[in-house]
């Protein structure tokens, strides 16, 4: 498997894009503004989008992707997410008010887009690749994903805060190689982080003590203006690992 980071910022501007990752050539893990860095040929190769949750910074470019590529494809784009996330997309985005309902365009029998619900702990097999939703704790229903090539795994937590169920699931992954985990605020914003269902460095340092594997750890979702401070706080607090900042265009092969 080959994962390319298209966007991993806590906002936009100055080359920062929100969360989106391209797995091989045909799968998106979230579809934030980072999708806008792809060419039309790249967009046409995407067959699946796995969505962690319904917040705009993770789904903003699904409507543009379907609108751009739908009529040029011979099969629907499949959106995989929790049932509650899919219901949110249907009710609030693809509702004919914000955007057309591409699940019935050009007609219900030949849609440009199809919804596929996922269940925590149940892997979706795409050839030899297995993508498994993992527990997450956010202010809306959310999941992370284990991406398993068969040789090794990468875990992306999505947006989450402290959650013992997440660590229990991660610690059962015997071939874990990479962990991408968020810290959306510095410690100065810990009150906001608590209300918004995000990590901040002190909390993240404490939670990483629950990780039983020797994985490479990368920090995502850092906010502009706080990223350097937050990384310093993370590095000062984490003693067992050496976390690194996730960067756009970074590539993982596993």
From TrEMBL:
<dbReference type="InterPro" id="IPR000396">
    <property type="entry name" value="Pdiesterase2"/>
</dbReference>
<protein>
    <submittedName>
        <fullName>Cyclic-AMP phosphodiesterase</fullName>
    </submittedName>
</protein>
<dbReference type="GO" id="GO:1902660">
    <property type="term" value="P:negative regulation of glucose mediated signaling pathway"/>
</dbReference>
<dbReference type="GO" id="GO:0006198">
    <property type="term" value="P:cAMP catabolic process"/>
</dbReference>
<dbReference type="GO" id="GO:0047555">
    <property type="term" value="F:3',5'-cyclic-GMP phosphodiesterase activity"/>
</dbReference>
<dbReference type="Pfam" id="PF12706">
    <property type="entry name" value="Lactamase_B_2"/>
</dbReference>
<dbReference type="GO" id="GO:0004115">
    <property type="term" value="F:3',5'-cyclic-AMP phosphodiesterase activity"/>
</dbReference>
<dbReference type="InterPro" id="IPR001279">
    <property type="entry name" value="Metallo-B-lactamas"/>
</dbReference>
<dbReference type="InterPro" id="IPR036866">
    <property type="entry name" value="RibonucZ/Hydroxyglut_hydro"/>
</dbReference>
<feature type="domain" description="Metallo-beta-lactamase">
    <location>
        <begin position="17"/>
        <end position="198"/>
    </location>
</feature>
């Amino acid at each position: 498997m080959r994962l390319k980071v298209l966007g991993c910022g806590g906002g936009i501007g100055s080359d920062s894009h929100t969360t989106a990752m391209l797995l091989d050539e045909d799968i998106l893990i979230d579809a934030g503004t980072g999708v806008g860095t792809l060419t039309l040929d790249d967009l046409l190769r995407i067959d699946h989008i796995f969505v962690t949750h319904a917040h705009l910074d993770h789904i903003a470019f699904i409507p543009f992707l379907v609108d751009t590529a739908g009529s040029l494809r011979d099969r629907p784009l499949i959106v995989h997410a929790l049932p509650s996330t899919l219901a949110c997309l249907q009710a609030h985005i693809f509702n004919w008010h914000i955007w057309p309902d591409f699940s019935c365009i050009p007609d219900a029998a030949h849609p440009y887009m199809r919804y596929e619900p996922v269940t925590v702990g149940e892997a979706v097999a795409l050839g030899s690749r297995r993508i498994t939703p993992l527990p997450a704790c956010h202010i809306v229903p959310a999941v992370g994903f284990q991406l398993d090539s068969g040789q090794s795994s990468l875990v992306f937590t999505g947006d989450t805060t402290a959650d013992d169920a997440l660590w229990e699931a991660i610690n059962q992954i015997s071939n874990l190689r990479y962990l991408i985990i968020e810290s959306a605020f510095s410690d100065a914003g810990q009150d906001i982080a608590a209300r918004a269902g995000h990590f901040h460095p002190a909390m993240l340092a404490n939670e990483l003590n629950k990780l039983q594997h020797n994985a490479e750890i990368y920090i995502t979702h850092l906010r502009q203006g706080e990223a350097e401070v937050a990384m310093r706080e993370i590095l000062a607090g984490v003693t067992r690992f050496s976390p690194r900042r996730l960067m756009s265009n970074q590539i993982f092969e596993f």
